[in-house]
Write a structure and sequence with these properties.
By secondary structure, the chain is of the alpha/beta class. The chain contains 33 helices and 28 strands. Helix 1 packs parallel to helix 29 and helix 5 runs antiparallel to helix 6.
């Protein structure tokens, strides 16, 4: 049996091209590598052709494109045969909607609020303006509604197998409410001139059988449809009669008939651009095709988790990764329910590994959730990066960025501007829902009714602009002390920018957000509305921060791209070794079983591209000089048109960092590489929302970027630039390689569970998705692993660009983890003192449990020992010793170990050791 808590996980991205069977074929390789748990992307039925699985359309069945239930069974057999566990990525927050594949959503469109699945979606039914009945906006049209209607793009069809009517807009099915079937059939029979035929009479008779409002109702509709499809000749009459609804520019009567029918449905069709201002269902961020689920509804939770429960009960599932936990209304309640489900399924005899996708901002602490071992590890990825960058170089890069951008190297103004833009565009509709609800609460009592809707909206906007993290975690019982302080502090910052008369409006807003409005003795306000507002704000601030910080500011602030990572701080000044040790000691106490990631499907760049770019902090002067020269060389390739240049100066600076991070060393930068950089550049420009955006693409600017990339990477046009780039890229790649070995060693030995993203056993120089989800050559990796049974480290160093050095070191580290499982899974963390002139270039610590231990020694800031990345470092050049008092190890004598002795093979080391005195542990001193 695999351990209940993984020793190492390996993330696989499952797609139609890499299904359950192909994953099963990789299992022997993962076992040989030292992995204990396969960690799979979502496996439930997703939208056809999905490349990620997060657009689940049916939680009750396996994805048929991955092999369905039979394919999953074969994967389970392979895992069991090799004693590997399974962790799946699960999506409780949202489902894929629109198109024709989500049965719950289609039922809601057909029946509206009468659908039993209406409670599963977070829809504000009364939000649509100028309608006599509630409905949900469907922003699926590629043009205005009028244009789509008159072009005949919206078509009414009959399904003779179901006896049902639906409007179709290309691949989108829009079920017609059965209460309108009688009207439709009467029009059809008249259009087909079939009133006197037997089939026509039967059809008309069927329409007269159900009279009154809302008939046939949900109970009667199945019988109506069954009888309709059994009427002989009905399909032919309907086929001819549908011409009455065949809209077209030259068919005004038919166009109006179809329009009137559509206006009487439980939905309203609209242009996709309407989503930002008018959408009335909760989405995943700003993705119209992903609708939020109300898993706080008990029946929705039970239905969406039925398959998960069965897999746990059958022993086929050992862990779960919860996607976008911040999207849930009450994550604490959800985790409690999930823990009860796990106990019901497997009993309470062993832990069930549960991690959450939670983005923590700087200095934010993770809240405890029932049954949760930790996060997926973004915060630890950033801690590792921050301790590896050179703080002195960051100071120099501050000045470089100031000169290029003409702005101070402070992130906060970028985030605030981005938030304001997101509020006005992408998430305007969600914000409107909140501000209207707040105004309705205020209007509910005479003491607050004079707070105008406009003033409340402005006050709430200031609160959102100043809110510093993703969300709070209030429950129906109110806020915790930390959440209360966070809300109060944010209110005060917002109040500081309020220039109108206050008159208590911010006190009212604070009390609504904390639900203090409902305390005894306060003026009575609607409890359901206050709770809905406070809890709904929490679901809004997460997407707000994500779209503003990760998906906007990160693509504007380019001081050092290695720091622009999910959960990171691009304006960070780095991390000292003592501060790093303190963070790890706290983690060993509080979250020793959470994941440690260095690359995921969502990271902004590959883990080794990141370490390369981080190395620029070690040579800031040479980097700045290189950029100045490159700008001159590439100036002729810029596009100037009117008031803009493409790319902008800041974007060009970002592009040079990207090229150094992704530059191939073993093969030339071919056409495929150029296309990858062009695709990345387009995405980065649109995400940055400065000169162009997804909502409003600037074709001339985007064309200028594409041309610029093509020209500067064309050897015939840019020989001098490419030679200079190649020279610096080799140096930065060597420094990045050394950083990568340190990063890898830290990931594998720190408190936590190391997670390996698919393919990253070789150098990972990928860019943001979809580039980081390209197919992986597992056959090459397996063959290389087989040839590395007894690694020749000196030989691997000579050929380091081929990536086999990283693969061999990964297997070596995982072999140590498996051999010292208790040390790494349950051991404490002890900083070790480093002495000598180069002590600041070394991170040393011990992991220990019982009398077993491991001493870890890694290097950082290698530029001074490699002639700026020109040669592999000679360990004799490091003047430092590590104090290992209290530990003994084979081949080591005394209380100190010199780096030259520890780093016999590589400038990183993990030494298996024993505690010399188990009775009286030594006291450690820490020095940075």
């Amino acid at each position: 049996m695999p351990p209940a808590i993984p020793l190492a996980t390996y993330r696989l991205q499952l797609t139609a091209d890499f299904d359950f069977d192909k994953a099963a074929a990789v299992v022997p390789y993962l076992k040989a590598l030292g992995i204990t748990h396969l960690y799979a992307s979502p496996v439930m039925k997703a939208r056809k052709g999905s490349t990620h699985g997060y657009d689940t359309v049916d939680h009750s069945q396996f994805n048929p494109e991955l092999g369905g239930e039979a394919g999953f069974a074969r994967l389970s057999e392979a895992l069991e045969a090799h004693d590997l566990g399974l962790i799946i990525d699960f999506v409780p927050n949202h489902v894929g909607v629109h198109f024709a594949d989500n049965p719950w959503w289609l039922d809601v469109l057909e029946w509206g609020q009468a659908s039993p699945h209406a409670a599963s979606f977070d829809i504000d039914w009364d939000q649509l303006a100028f309608r006599a009945r509630g409905g949900v906006l469907l922003p699926i049209l590629g043009s205005s509604y009028g244009e789509a209607l008159e072009r005949g793009d919206i078509e009414l069809r009959y399904d003779p197998d179901e006896g049902s009517f639906s409007a179709w807009y290309f691949e989108h099915r829009l079920p017609i409410a059965p209460e309108r079937y009688g009207e439709i059939l009467r029009v059809i029979v008249k259009e087909a001139d079939a009133a006197e035929t037997a089939a026509g009479k039967h059809l008309l008779s069927l329409t007269t059988r159900y009279t009154g409002l809302r008939r046939p109702n949900r109970k009667e509709a199945p019988g109506f449809k069954a009888e309709l499809k059994e009427i002989a000749g009905a399909a032919d009459i309907i086929g001819r009669g549908l011409a009455a609804y065949r809209a077209g520019k030259d068919r005004p009567a038919q166009t109006l008939t179809l329009h009137h029918l559509l206006e009487r449905q439980h939905y309203k069709l609209g242009h996709w651009r309407l989503a930002s201002s008018d959408i009335n269902y909760r989405r995943f961020f700003d993705v119209n095709g992903l609708a939020g689920l109300r898993v706080e509804d008990a029946s929705t939770f039970a239905a969406t988790h039925r398959l998960v429960k069965q897999l746990i009960a059958d022993g086929k599932l050992q862990g779960i990764r919860l996607d976008h936990i911040d999207g849930l209304r009450d994550p604490a309640q959800y985790c409690q329910r999930l823990r009860r489900l796990v106990r019901d399924a497997q009993g309470n005899t062993k832990p069930f590994y549960t991690v959450i996708e939670k983005i923590l901002c700087e200095r934010e602490r993770l809240q405890k959730f029932a049954g949760v071992q930790g996060t997926t590890g973004y915060e630890w990825m950033n801690v590792i990066t921050h301790v590896l960058v050179d703080p002195k170089g960051l100071e120099a890069l501050d000045e470089t960025w100031r000169q290029i951008s003409n702005r101070p190297p402070r992130l906060a103004p970028y985030v605030k501007d981005a938030k304001r833009r997101v509020l006005e565009t992408l998430l305007a509709s969600e914000f409107t829902v909140l501000s209207r609800l707040l105004a309705r609460i205020a209007n509910g009592h005479y003491s607050t009714r004079d707070f105008s809707a406009d003033s409340l909206r402005q006050a709430l906007e200031l609160y959102v602009l100043h809110f510093p993290v993703y969300r709070t975690y209030l429950t129906h019982s109110g806020p915790t002390a930390p959440d209360r302080k966070l809300i109060e502090d944010t209110i005060e910052r917002a109040r500081g920018e309020w220039f109108a008369a206050d008159e208590g409006i911010f006190d009212f807003l604070r009390d609504a957000l904390t639900m203090d409005l409902l305390k005894p003795g306060r003026p009575p306000h609607s409890a359901p509305r206050v709770r809905r507002f406070a809890l709904k704000v929490q679901q809004f601030t997460g997407p707000m921060m994500a779209k503003s910080l990760e998906d906007t500011a990160f693509y504007q602030f380019h001081r050092l791209l290695a720091l622009n990572e999910v959960g990171g701080d691009p304006a960070s000044s780095g991390l000292t070794v003592p501060a790093f040790h303190q963070a790890m000691q706290a983690r060993a106490r509080e979250w020793p079983q959470g994941m440690t990631a260095t690359a995921t499907h969502d990271t902004k760049r590959g883990e080794d591209a990141r370490t390369r770019i981080a190395a620029l902090s070690e040579i800031p002067g040479e980097w700045t000089s290189a950029v100045a020269r490159w700008k001159v060389l590439n100036a002729p390739h810029l596009t100037h048109q009117g008031s803009f240049r493409a790319p902008s100066a800041t974007f060009e600076y970002m592009l040079y960092q990207t090229l150094l991070g992704a530059w191939p060393l073993e093969e030339p930068a071919d056409a495929a590489f150029v296309e990858r950089i062009q695709a990345y550049s387009l995405k980065a420009a649109r995400e940055g929302k400065e000169e162009t955006s997804w909502l409003n693409p600037h074709e001339a600017y985007e064309s200028g970027i594409r041309d610029f990339v093509g020209k500067i990477l064309d050897p015939a046009r840019s020989t001098e630039f490419l030679e200079a780039l190649q020279t610096l890229a080799r140096r930065v790649a060597l420094l990045g390689t050394l950083n990568s070995l340190s990063q890898l060693t830290l990931k594998a030995t720190l408190p936590g569970v190391p997670d390996f993203y698919q393919g990253t056993e070789f150098w990972d120089l990928s860019l943001v998705d979809p580039d980081n989800r390209r197919p992986v050559d597992f056959a090459a990796r397996h063959a290389a692993l087989t040839s590395l049974q007894a690694p020749d480290w000196s030989g691997l160093i000579k050929s380091w660009p081929d990536g086999q050095l990283k693969l061999a070191w990964t297997r070596h580290l995982l072999k140590l983890r498996n051999g010292l499982a208790d040390v790494f899974a349950r051991g404490d963390y002890q900083p070790l003192e480093v002495r000598g002139a180069h002590a600041d270039h070394v991170i040393a610590f011990a992991r220990r449990h019982g009398r077993a231990a491991a001493v870890v020694v890694v290097g950082r800031h290698f530029a001074a020992f490699t002639q700026g990345g020109r040669e592999w470092p000679a360990v004799e050049g490091f003047d430092a010793t590590v104090d290992i008092s209290g530990y003994t190890a084979t081949g080591l004598a005394g209380n100190e170990v010199r780096l030259a002795q520890a780093w016999r093979d590589l400038p990183v080391a993990v030494i298996e050791a024993r505690i010399a005195n188990a009775v009286k542990p030594m006291r450690q001193r820490v020095r940075g």
